[in-house]
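Title: Prediction job returns without error message
Component: structure pipeline
Severity: low
Priority: P3
Assignee: unassigned

Description:
Job completed but the reporter wants confirmation the result is attached to the right record. Sequence as submitted:
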Amino acid sequence: MKNSKAKIWRIALLLFSFFLSAQVHADDIKGKIIDASGEPVIGANVIKKNSTQGTITDLNGTFSIEAQKGDILQISYLGYIPASVTVDGKSIIVTLQEDVTGLEEVVVVGYGSIEKKKLTSAIASVKSDDFLTGSIKDAGQLIQGKIAGLNISTPSGDPVGGVEIVLRGTNSLKAGSAPLVLIDGVPGDLKLVSPDNIASIDVLKDGSAAAIYGTRANNGVILVTTKQAAIGKTSVSYNGYITTEQIARTPDVLTASEYRNLLNNGSGYIEENSDYGASTDWLDEITRTPISHYHSVSLNWGNETTNVYANISVKQAQGVFLNSDKSDFSGKLTINHTAFDGLLKFNLNTILNKQDYTITADGDASFNSYAYNMALTANPTAPVRMENGEWCQPKFLGIDIGTWENPLALLKERKGNNDNFTGRIYGNVTFTPIAALKFNLLMSYQRYNQTRGYAQSSKDISNTVYSSTPLFASRAATQSDDAMLELTGQFDKTFNEHQLSVLGGYSYIRNEWEHFWMNNYGFPSDQLTYNNMGLGSALKDGKAGMYSDKTSGNLIGFFARVNYNYAEKYMLTASLRYEGDSKFVGSNQEWGLFPSVSAAWRINKEAFMKSLTFVDDLKLRAGYGVTGISPSQYYQTISRLKYLGTGNSFYYDGEWVTPLGPANNVNTKFTWEKKHEYNVGLDFSLFKGRLSGAVDYYNRVTSDLLWDFSVPVPPNVYGTTTANIGKIANSGVEVMLSGAPVRTKSFSWSPTVTFSYNTNKLRSLDFAQYDVENPRDYFFTNAEEGSYTCTHRIKVGEPIGQIWGYKVVGITEEGKWLFDDPTNPGGTFTTDDSGITVETHGQVLGNSLPKYYLGFNNQFTYKNFDLGIMMRGAFGYNIINQFRLRNENVSNRRSNNKPVSAFDPVFGVEVNKNPVEKITSYYVENGDFWKIDNITLGYTFSALKNKYLKSLRLYATVNNAFIFTGYSGNDPESASRVGLSPGMDYMNQYPTTRTYTVGLNLNF
């Protein structure tokens, strides 16, 4: 017993001595990191494997780290292949090799990932190091201008607003243009995840890449991959910034002084006695210098068995207008655990997102954009308030009601709150029984809740002037639940030079959505706002509004994919998805089949290319794929009944009865819209990565387009039928070029150019199979409110976006328009002539969808300074300037303000005196623009003599910095480029802004 105890103590003493010896021999290891030319690599990361210790290289490429003999140091730097070195007690010199082609880069694809060199489809990837910085509304802005063919615009400066995304043109008549967004494989929204949580964004552009997602992928797929814990190190990072902004562009209107001059000079263009003695800058009254701030803290912790990533992000955003704001909280937690020597891997994620913002209009919109319109058109000589303290309104000045409204009162006396909360939990269980076989179970659940309330005070114009709905209030609530389960199995095997990967899977998605809304007015006090909805008098008078709805549905899919690779020279990919949607219950085609096939040939691997040493990589790709679109509404294929409302009630047997009636016509042929797409591409890298890029040509045709059209009753039971009736085609070219023309010890320049061209055409509208009243091969759309018949014509054989109206050829001495008469070549007409309609006498005045997009990104580094300049533009399209259209008519002598341009003679003859506003070519302007959109200057403090702080970076950013355009209205991007009526620069909208940001990054 004693001997055993003594033996244990000797072993313990030996181990303790060994431990002390290890500590004694831990030294400061010095080293230097250089590139292939011997130049120092500044700012390279040097981390001791399986520890929290790390440092970065200084201006000379040197570093010092505490390590002992046998430790492994891992070195990494953007643009270079990572390296590892074992400490031997001597000074270390490591040469990093440039990642000249990026071919080893891993790209995320549907249900997996693949090396870039093995891609057979049109897929673009942007890593977090290349994201744009500044005040970001949603993740779409991170990659703005960086991917050819993916056109991202920011049409509003509203803090609650987001981006518009269009990939390869307009592909549907009824469905939107938004791509499918998947966050770690789960459907989501680009606003759900904080930008600091995103590791990469990959875009599946062509049909062969997207077909594995079937009916959801017609507009492309955006794959967002969030950050995971870094194995073997504990780190904390902070990113924060403060931002202010201003309106980017606004129309030039009369000042109070200019208004008085026109009133007093006898021009007759300003209403007499409309000088009310004040000098009010209405736009200045409703705007401010906003201050917004953002803070994000991330934690990495763990080892190879268990690791954790956590992030909390908070943003308080103020808009440029009063009562325009948003509070945003986002949290993410990721836990990874490996068990049984890698046999099982568990991944658990939680995302929480809460958005809270003020609303000044009834509904989901945050800002009453009518106030901006009124700020431009309200009389500049009117005071903000009357002498008795009431808000100044036209009625109190003896002006006709409806001439204009006090814009400040609109924002002060109408207010509410919109509170949104999204909670998502999702995770993966991965089982790897053998090295070549892997099974994965992905499960997710998400709940979204929205509650909002809105109220108008007793001082609002609805009470003081109109008295139609005094003390109005509304309340609404929405809830949705989304659940998903996906099971996949993947087999990967290499046989000599043959590589085979087979994937199979099952997907189940269920959604349940419900909504409630009500309004009331005539409350006894405006102190109640929207918090006691039952007290309003309109409810007991039967004039209050109330509505509720609930829908549910599911989507089931089976899918498979095969990847074959021979010698990394010839590659083939084929996939198939078989999908069923509850929206098609009752149809003959409840299930759809979505195949794809693509192939690639790495030409540089051929023997005849060996002499061309300047070619790093040359790959030819070709692919074909089918994707689909589901309708937005459920159960349109079966016979449904609905209550016809109280307006159709009838009196029977002593009581009023609300009747039932048909809700739709039965259509058993109802099916998905299907897009068939061919894509041919060429990827290349030359001169050791100094020049690389990709060129793609695509041709896509969407068939079975869904549309609503009128049908006779009888024989139909309902006056409108939704059916598959047409085809639409898009084709185009995309080019991406990247270079590194300059890279020296102190200075580097890395430019990237993106270019895309798209042409669009409606191929057919086939009404023959349906009993349609007055079938024709065109229809009109109305993007205008008010007196206008239409703004666009959609016609077979023409592209989407054709602006339709009267073509101006002159103006009379009386200030009346002279229009070209298409029914009488060489003839003209005026609005006073009889028998004139926009359908018979209108013409195509332009197209409101850009043909060309161009982006030019530049990244410069000089020692520890970095400068990024992103420029982009859109060309070959037109915009309808609604503000000029509505306000340049001087024959309207009401006391509202007018644009300065209203008093310029048209064609040098006379000012516009047309009493009726029409869509005319005079107000259709060239929308081409070029923007210096993002400028970021940063400085990184690398050689910090601090045990805990690894790096510190300061930066300043200007977004929407400079706009070069011939367009006379707002920012050209204010005009939407989606839908069937694009290109309208509305007066009632939140203008775009120019933002100025100062930020700080800390890494511990």
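Comment from assignee: result matches the submitted record. The first strand starts at residue 27 and ends at 35.
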